[in-house]
Amino acid sequence: MRILYCGDVVGRPGRRVIAEKLPELRKALNLDFVIVNGENAAHGFGLTPKIYQEIKNAGADAVTLGNHTFDKKEIIPFLQEENDIIRPANYPEGTPGKGVKVFTLADGRKIAVMQVLGTLYMHAALNPFETLSGLLAQYRIGDNIQAVFVDIHCEATSEKVATGFYCDGRASLVAGTHTHIPTADAQILPNGTGFITDVGMCGTYRSVIGMTPETALSRFLPDKKSSPLQPANDKATLCAVFCETDDATGKAVKIFPVRAGGYLEESFKVC
What is the pLDDT of residues 125-151, one digit of tens each? Predict the structure, then answer.
């Protein structure tokens, strides 16, 4: 299975670059399944039903969320109805939405998409490793499903790497999101799981993780008061990770980062 995971879509620039580049990437990489993190797509904080549909129309098969899942209140009833959105699975029982979903491709192959929220320097959530233990026992690559994707959405790189090793041999791909900066460690772990610490964001890198430097700097300088963050509006880069898996075992056979457009050096050019 040929899978692409696109990192956090941040504001209008992120939505633009997804709309421009994702259809071309689907063709160029002959993709079977595309997942997009949409939790920052609505002016940098949260997701709305309308923007969700924009991301789907651009070519996403599934949309993951994160710690900003409930920032836009109009998404809450939508989470109960729309099956292609995955919010963190380690929220308490009774939380609106779904933390995992199995998607069936046109040829019958199945992929489970799940997300967990980290606990270091993040809002309180249930232990992600305990949650993953139950999910990975239910969805087993090489047995009852062809691929398993895990989005680890958290602040600390150490927690993301630990999650990769915890899932090694039980997931096809573990990819980190939330910090918005792409890491250079895309690899296949010893037991066959594709891993990258952070995919990066789909947004403008002439910014502070997607926000204007002016509003972000005020939070760090000792002589200035904090001001509301504003998404930057400039040329954006689509940051993603590509992973190809073996359908028989569910394990990764190829992985590489994808960067297209904007100010970052492109790792994959599309016309």
Answer: 999 999 999 999 999 999 999 999 999
In the beta sheet, which residues pair with residue 34? 4
Active centre residues (catalytic): 68
Phi, psi of 110 (to 5 degrees): -120, 145
Q: How far is CA 24 from CA 12, 19, 30, 208, in A?
A: 19, 9, 10, 28
Pair type for strands 2-6 and 238-245: antiparallel
Which residue, 185, 191, 62, is CA-closest to 115? 62
The one-letter amino acid at 249: T
Dihedral over Cα of 269, 11, 42, 148: its sign: positive
- Range 151-186 burial, b when 16+ CB lie within 10 A, else e: bbbbbbbebbbbbbebbbbbbbbbbbbbbbebbeeb
Q: Which residues pair with 174 in a beta bridge?
A: 150, 195
Contact yes or no for 223/186 (Cβ under 8 A): no
d(CA 35, CA 10): 15
Cα separation, 233 vs 215, in Å, equals 13
243 membership: H or E segment, kind and range: strand 238-245
Is the overall model pTM greater than 0.85, yes or no? Answer: yes
Q: Return all residues near 68 (Cβ < 8 A) that are at least 6 apart.
A: 39, 40, 45, 46, 47
For residues 117 and 100, give the distance between their C-alpha atoms in angstroms, rounded to a whole number: 13
